[in-house]
């Protein structure tokens, strides 16, 4: 008897129709999503610059490069790249080690070259070896962190940078002590704007509003931003005590001329190439940025309603080019970022156009709209992130993982707790260790996952799974699916399998959902259907 989650027999192949390669066709959804991602990304870019000890403009430049350039180089349709909170500690240390931000820019150029090399060496395959339970734990943890970290900004009681994802903050607080401090220093104007913004966003997500076609074209985040500005202007004239303090508003550098822009930009110090410490910093940035990117695109693929698969090696190359260009322009290192990517997906983004539009909006805001955007209260943007966080960590996700059994739930919940109390990479490492324990325990029986059975029917491939199919086989299975030619009939036979790991079942289900659009006729035998994110 196969040991896996009970599920109904596989249904006939049906799959969501993916967006057309004609990006104009999906512009009606991508443009509003790009706007939402821009509103989320702008304060994060500025906050990460402050947290990294870098010039304020550096994070915005990286966000622009991630949107305008990397979105087209990447193979992912929904991933959004930009400066990452996970690199802030590395940047602070790097600036201290190398003596200047300009020297770190040189190290970032070298890091981009290393990522390019990793892409050409096909090192991206490591992304497939993160268990599904750990990736889902990472998503749930990020959702919880977004909620917990935005509460002080939501209450208008936090004056430090906008995004600090680690449990231990640079200001000496931790996640929970910052909330306690915030509750004792509430700015009532900011809090009122935050509450109203959250209520508007909840209403905007309701079925009555979504049923109105015209309203579906307007992102709730835009309504919230406009309303929050108007509320604060009203406070300034009618209730000055409620007016949002300047430190709780968006702070974008004012650029009124090309001379202003060049004065704000930093450029690499090439003399740093003569020092060995530059290459140590470069290697550190390259490895951490690559791991964060691979984790993020794996998570994005799980959230993608169309279940598209991101080529990991192409992603590493895209990130490498992005880091080279960003550093040459004075930007921070970039990665694929799950917070912005999940905001993109939750806002209805369909193709890479949404990330591209967000990059154009960042560029336009930098050049033309700083005075307007600097009127936006951070509490309104915190409300947007609270909604994003809730969608990532819905109670249904925890219930689903619990029903799958301890081998899926324990790595999931350990990952959640470990990320909450450390940081993203450490938490994933702890969750991965727990997941690997279960994998190795289950993998003792067999190391071989399938073989092709001979068939007398032309154009038919019969793939027979072995007695035990573990998570370690996932990468090979996905690669096999990707290499299948169109107009092929595939019989995937699990009738003799005692155990099929949930991660493999999930990969098979994703293939089942997309097989028809590739012209592949798929027949599943003895393989249960499982739930996947987005369905």
Automatic annotation (TrEMBL):
Q: Which PROSITE patterns match?
A: STAS
The alphabetical list of record keywords is:
Membrane, Transmembrane, Transmembrane helix
Tell where it localizes.
Membrane
Q: How does the UniProt record describe the way this protein sits in the membrane?
A: Multi-pass membrane protein
Q: Which residues does the UniProt record annotate as the domain STAS?
A: 450-535
**Record-linked Pfam families:** Sulfate_transp (PF00916)
Q: Where are the transmembrane segments?
A: 31-49, 56-75, 87-114, 126-148, 185-204, 216-235, 279-300, 321-343, 355-388, 409-440
Q: What is its main location?
A: membrane
> Cross-referenced PANTHER family, in alphabetical order?
SULFATE TRANSPORTER (PTHR11814)
Instruction: Spell out the protein name for this chain.
Output: SulP family inorganic anion transporter
- The source organism is Hymenobacter nitidus
